[in-house]
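Protocol step 4 of 6: structure prediction from sequence.
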Amino acid sequence: MRPLRRHPLLVPALLCALALLAAGPTAAKGDAGDPGGLSTEVVRLFEEASAATRRYEEGRKEAEVQRARAQRLERLLAREQRSIAALHGDLGRIARAQYRSGGGLPHTAQLLLADSPEELMRGQRAVWQADLAVNNAVTKSRRAEARLAADEAKAAKAWQTLERRNARLAEMKQGIEQRLEAAQSTLQGQADASVAAGACRGAVRLDQSEPGFAAAWVAPLETYELSAGFGSGGERWASRHTGQDFAVDIGAPVRSVGEGRVVKVSCGGPFGVEVVVRHPGGYYTQYAHLASVAVDKGERVAAGQWVGQSGTSGNSTGPHLHFEVRLTPYHGSGVDPMGWLAERGVQVS
């Protein structure tokens, strides 16, 4: 019987496969070899996009100020040029009038024609003073014109520099947003896969500094737009809407509105990826349609602590957070979340 030959790479390959199988559930908690993986990348890109937007808006406002200044100086320059032209016209009229009245005759002839030397001197003095006044005005106006032209050139140069800077900022902002959209799409794809499988990938520990909120209660998101409210009707729900929806992009950090303990982390059903927290006093809050979770069941959370990232998993028509306040951990025991938060000093608008 012919002996079996071992392939030199067979044993290492089998060992690697076994190691991957054994590490499967743990590896799902992180992506790209770092603890936060893709979720952390989305949060980082959110911050970068926000910072780039702020820089772009600041630059745009500065450019508008410089543009307005350049345009104002252009108008002043045109006014000075019209003033100089008017003074030149006045000087020409004085010269022509002087010529017609004898200003072009020799001084001796003017003396002979004048009724008296005093009359001649008065006329000559008046003409000389008029010439001097016009010449002084023209000189001053030209100096002002030169200053305005220099200021206008500086303002125009500053405006053009800001425009070039803004073009670079807009390009950088667009690049960040494109990377963010790609990361958001991948993150949401992972959430959809978890919902389809009915099993969560595990908590992704996002790099959040200590919440440090002075208030005991906070809004579930830092920035948002309100959409469907509690009790509203529509064909999307079997009866009435049981929570408050916050329209927000995929991957935005979702906060626990108060301290409590996580009693449920689920990745299946109509709510998609969801987290439920029990608070002191017996109330529960639900955070649904998430793209990822940042806590595990049984974990204690503080007010403002991130419990996940917004998404559009489950029965969702677009990226948003579905937020509920319940009397029990279960669906169907909801109360108006806006009024509940308002009673605790949180004004959501």
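Step 5 (inspection) to follow. The helical segments are 10-22, 24-27, 37-103, 107-113, 117-197, 337-343.
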